[in-house]
Amino acid sequence: MKTAFFLTDGSVNSALSLRCWLAANSETAVRLTVVHPYDIELGTILTKNTYQMAKRKAIDRLENWLNLLPQSWPGELKTETLLASPELAVTIHLLLRPYTYLLVDDQAFGLPVNPDELLNKSTAELCWLGDYSFAVIS
């Protein structure tokens, strides 16, 4: 089964981009991992309480975001929140797990300044969701 990784900021735009991609690839089973990175508020000291509050907010945002996606499609969906910068979250996942595709919406959220260097170290192929002619997988 092909695998894909998508990093979301929890925005409606990112959900709509992914929703369109899922619709365009409705005949293909894909194991999709969606990660929502989060952080504590600037100037806040990291404590058990601030961590738990930030994680709870991130989980709530991710659950609300998931409601914007189709409820059924032929693949598998795994979601997670991660206390990290978007760039670090992408780097960790691409270096530690094999993915067929790195899905990126038009905002290029989470991509390092030089994504080619990271992609050369992973098995993932960059797939821009805004370009539907290239986003359909075979």
| Poorly predicted segments | none
Beta-strand level of the residues, as a percent range? 15-25%
What's the total helix number?
5
Q: Supply Rg.
A: 15 Å
The first-to-last residue Cα distance is 12 Å
Q: Which percent bin holds the helix content?
A: 25-40%
CATH fold node name: Rossmann fold
Structural class: alpha/beta
| Number of strand segments | 5
Averaged pLDDT, please? 87
In CATH, the architecture is: 3-Layer(aba) Sandwich
Per CATH, the class reads Alpha Beta
Q: Main sheet, how many strands, which sense, barrel?
A: 5 strands, parallel
How many independent structural domains? 1
How do the SSEs run, as a string of H and E?
A: EHEHEHEHEH
